[in-house]
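Known limitations

Files may contain more than one protein. Parsers should not assume a single record per file. Below, a two-record file is shown to illustrate correct handling: read the sequence, read the token line, then continue until end of file.
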Amino acid sequence: MKKIILAAALTLAAFTAFAQQSTGKGPDFKNTISTGIVNWDLTNKDAEFAGLYNNTSVELLSGKVDCGIDATFGLLKPSAKPIQFTDMNINDWYIEFRPFEKFTFGLHDVIYTHGSYLPVLGTNINNGNIGSDIVVVWRPVQGMRIGLGYGIPSFFGEDNYANEAHPVFNVGADYTYGKKFSVGFSIRDIINNFGAGIYGEVLAVENLYVTYGYTYNNDATSIEEMFSKAYTDGDMNLVYNNLEKNIFLGKHIVSLGATYKYKKADFALDFAYSNISSNNIFYIGSDISFAATDAIDLGFKYTVLTDFDGTSYMRFNPSFDYSAKSWGCGVGVNFLMLNESGTKANMLSFPVYFEFSL
């Protein structure tokens, strides 16, 4: 609760600073209501409410100050308990100040180096962050960013550092050469639980975007921890989303991502290899979308996690999306096939969302 209050207070202060020197442009506001409707366990012939979530994000951009906040709350049905409201969760917040041309000062600022992005997952690898709870970014020449920061071991800081009792220093840099390529690196928690990453992207081919990287975590999780961190009561799709992201908690990770646009079709591909406590885990994702009209997109996503030794998780997700000027909606089907050391389960849910923006 302290973190929520402090984040809101600091962001409000930045909003005030923004208002004092704003050029008149209003905030970017987006609200999304989503649900999986039902988690249907086809194996055990059981069904539970999949939860209802409301996500709100507000961002203000100006010449000298940027700030934003993203929060979620919802309705959830934990196992053997009635439906209840979840706590308000601050997913992210940040404040950036640019008092000088070549310097940026940030609070709780996530700045991902180019190439750490995986398009099918729609997220960046954590070690690709050259930002920090307190960070200074220097841009000595065009296309280059150098970040030096400090992660605060308290309720003020990132969740990763909230329980740490030692100073957390981070450093990183990247360089983009026109529309040809970019390369970057990051080093996280230099003194204690060392983690690092080297990432890059290829931009030179028209309609093709490629990312690649190598990630190292000295304090790698075990495969048991990976699965226990992923499992939460309620939405099985959240469980799978967490499993996909937790693959990047391994000791050595090699990643590759690509997108290609051909006329009205978009293609995306992810690949990652992770070594987790002597287990070799592979993640593969593919996503195809087709613009049937200017407002309607049809999509199909397939992802798989496997160790090629009896454990695999697969998800199939056909979807339909409609977008208008200030609102959008979509429906889909999520079909999960889980196989864990011979124990199999098939899950079905029906994700629906409605969003509007200002």
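...continuing to the second record:
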Amino acid sequence: MYVVDRVYQQALHQVLQPIFEADFQAHSYGFRPNHNTHQAVARSLENINSGSQDVIYIDLKSFFNQVEHHILLDLIYKKVKCNTTMKLLRSFLREPIQIKGKLIKRRKSVPQGSPLSPLLSNIILNELDKELKNREHKYVRYADDFSIYVRGKESAKQIGNSIYMYLRDKLHLPINRDKSGIFRPQTFSLLGYSFVRTYKKAEKDKYQLVVKKSKWQGFKQKLKHLTKKTIPISFDERIKRLNLLIRGWVNYFKLGSIQGKLKKLDQWLRNWLRYCICHHWKKPERKRKNLIRLGISNGQAYAWSRTKMRGLAVAQSPILGTTITVKRLKKRGYISLVEYYKTASLLNR
């Protein structure tokens, strides 16, 4: 039955999406055709660099659980005068949930994970978009993540309070006061990106995009996991998985000024790959033979194959750096983080 429900919901989505898409506002970027996170982040940077550097960020508290059905259904009925469609949509929204052993019909909340959920969230929050547009505010919204850009902290306070009341009184949506607030660009982040000053003489009070610190840490942890010697996979499979991760991460964060950090991360990653290769050789005699094949003299190969140094220290040593070179790693399929970033950045222009 669950599969049948999803088929019906997908069919509803295909019918409703074109009807409401025409009414959606330009600065709503989430879950829409030809709209994406890069456009949202670029618009945010543009707003900040135009001088609107007091950012009102509002976090909607448990948004999907707070959407009231009668408000959402009224908005849909204004454009879709079809009783059958409305009945079907109502049945999905009000599907009973079990609480303490009893089935209770829902009067609010949108099922998360449903093909319809992103569209329904955009339909109700489009009312907020229209309100912001009518007030001529600069804003960016990606799904239920939205920010407003103004000049001056006092103006930001007034606008923030006004929008809070609009959400509470008109859409019946509560906000998370702990996460919401007024931020300066250097303390604000959006969709994994942060903002830092450019510090160029000709660009006073201008900002550029960088990657949020937690995203860097998460990326490095994933790279470290894939280069663990204990993972029972071949070197080729290891490279394949790393490349998938690198392509995905760099393509997402290619708008950021991250070349310097990627260069350091590249060096760190190559050392871990050398460590994996060295560990795979295992026995001292095999290490010696492989080092000789790579061009090391017999005496040096013997000494390094029997060294008491830890594996990573050996990987960082000149002996492997000059033998298991970047060129050799590339022949095995390794993708340089910096080179891929440069390519991705050029394609984005």
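Parsers that stop after the first record will miss the second one. For reference, the second record is described as follows. Residues 144 and 251 are 23 Å apart (CA to CA).
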